[in-house]
Each structure stands twice: as C-alpha cells, then as structure tokens.
Design brief:
This protein has two domains: 167 residues, Lysozyme-like; 63 residues, Muramoyl-pentapeptide Carboxypeptidase, domain 1 (Orthogonal Bundle), CATH 1.10.101. The chain is built from ten helices and five strands, in the order ααβαβββαβαααααα. It is elongated, with a radius of gyration of 36 Å. With 289 residues, the chain is α/β, with parallel strands linked by helices. The chain has a five-stranded mixed sheet with strand order 3-2-4-1-5, covered by helices on one side. Bound molecules: zinc ion. The site of zinc ion (ZN) has 4 residues, from loops.
C-alpha cells in the first residue's frame, strides 16, 4: 500500500535495527485507520545524547519503563523524533498505541519543554502531513480525555505551528500523492483538480488529476509527483517593491517658543531706527554739553 510505503520512507532507523527484543508486531489496524498526529514528550530529563548509542539507549529505557514497569505490551510511541531530525521507529505502525488509540500515530519528542530544533520540526511536519487528515487532527496529550501537561509549553507552540503549516502549506509533501492516499495534501490536490474535497484519493480524483495534467501539458499518469505538484502549487513571485522616500517632518514649534519669537520680533520693531537726522541731533546734543 502506497501510504504505508510512504510512512516507512520517513523512518531513518527501524526497530529491528536496534532492538532484538521487539514486542508483538501483530497488526491491529490498517494505515487507512490513521488520521491523527499525536505528540508527546518525556517528563524531567537532562540533555539527550544524540549519538547512535545514545538514541538507542534512550528508546530502550522507555521500552523497559513501558513494558516492565507499566506492564504494557510494547513501547507506547510509534515514532521518536530526535533533535537532529532523525526519526526512529518504536511500536509497529499497524499496532495502535495503549488506550485503543486506533486513529493516532503517537510521536515522542525526547526532552521536557526543550526547544524544538528546526531539523526536528521539519521531521515532525513530515509525520504530521502523513498522519493528520485535517489540521485539527494535529494534537498532543493535553487534548485527550486523560489529559496531562504533555507535551509542555514548547510542545504547544510546535502543535500550533504544525497546524498553521498544514493549513497553508503548498510545499511538496516529500512523496508521490496517488490513489489510496488520504490526508491534507490529498485535499489540496482535490481542490485544484476540482473534485469533492474529502481527503481520500480514489478513482474520481485520479481521473481528475489525469485530465488536469493533460490540460497543463504534463504526462497524464494520474499521480502527483514533484513536477505535477510544482505546477499545481506554483510559488508566487513577489511583486517588485517600490521605495517611497518620505521627507522628515519639520520640528513642531511649541506655543511657548512661538510666544518668545513674537516678543523678540516686537522688541526689534520697537528699536528706534537710526537716521541721519537723529545722528545730527545726537551730535548737537553732545556738543552742547
Ligand atoms: Zn504524553
């Protein structure tokens, strides 16, 4: 199934590569059941060791806690997304998490209220785009009935950013969108090719994509790869910006300054003007004394 292949295309390190004591891999759901991205973090921790051994130990520590201490069948989380952006597989994707979260991919962010790095965020975005059928299906532990403070203050910021990005995103999802797919990006394609926007890529959508491709000079294969995507969602070119220079306003004159100016002018005007007659008169006066 295409959708599942896409999921495995995102995983950097598979469970079988680091854990020989894998929990049950029995399938309890299909990837079509998944429509929620759910994010978690760890309580009180220090810095996370990002070496390969460090990541492995991190996950095995959580596995021991969940399987031994808690008595669960397996690790709660389907995926671990580390600060360097690496995605490690936890519980098998076709096994729903504890508490019958059949519709959710549970994602663990190592750390507690630690700032999510950009590489980490981009990986979270890939997972969210794969898992969430609509932006509102991006959530964390706080939005479940058994709510906790998880995934922290910074986790909340991450959730809001992911939702906004899913709402506005026209960036190629990173995999070919085709028959059998579902999710936000399918809705974006459906809106362009003019079929009902239900988020499920079926025969009607495929036929509409083929027609759209033909009309736009592309080979009509009915799948939306990078070329078709780029034509469907062209990056808008910014209009040239004209610069208008606004002259600085003249400094304002206060009422007090104006009054002072007026009185100075008045004093100047009151000064007697020196004329030849007046100079003679003054000289005569001096000579007389
Ligand atoms: Zn949690």
């Amino acid at each position: 199934m295409t959708r599942l292949q896409d999921f495995y295309g995102m995983v950097d390190v598979y469970r079988s590569e680091y854990d020989s004591s894998i929990g049950s891999t029995e399938a309890t759901r299909t990837s079509a059941d998944i429509e929620v991205y759910e994010q978690h973090h760890t309580g009180a921790v220090g810095p996370v060791d990002l070496s390969e051994a460090g990541k492995r130990n991190w996950i095995l520590g959580i596995e021991a806690y969940h399987r031994v201490t808690k008595g669960w069948s397996d690790i709660f989380y389907n995926l671990f997304v580390f600060a360097d952006g690496e995605i490690w597989e936890g519980r098998h994707i076709l096994r729903s998490s504890q508490r019958s979260l059949n519709d959710a991919v549970t994602v663990h962010i190592p750390g507690n209220n630690s700032v999510t790095t950009e590489a980490q965020h981009q990986s979270l975005l890939r997972v969210a785009r794969w898992a969430a059928s609509v932006p509102e299906k991006v959530r964390d532990h706080q939005q479940r009935p058994a709510a906790t403070a998880c995934s922290g203050v910074n986790g909340r910021i991450t959730i809001e950013r992911l939702r906004n990005e899913l709402l506005m995103s026209v960036v190629y999802p990173g995999f070919v969108v085709r028959d059998g797919d579902s999710g936000v990006f399918v809705k974006q394609v459906q809106a362009v090719v003019g079929v009902s926007v239900d988020g499920a890529f079926g025969p009607l959508t495929e036929a509409a994509v083929k027609a759209w491709q033909s009309a736009n000079g592309l080979s009509a294969d009915g799948v939306v790869g990078p070329t078709t995507w780029a034509k469907m969602f062209p990056v808008p070119v910014a209009a040239p910006v004209s610069v208008v220079v606004v002259p600085a306003p003249a400094p304002a004159v206060t009422a007090t300054q104006l009054k002072e100016l007026e009185s100075r002018v008045a004093a100047l005007e009151a000064r007697p003007v020196l004329t030849l007659a007046r100079v003679r008169a003054m000289l005569r006066k001096r000579l007389a004394t």
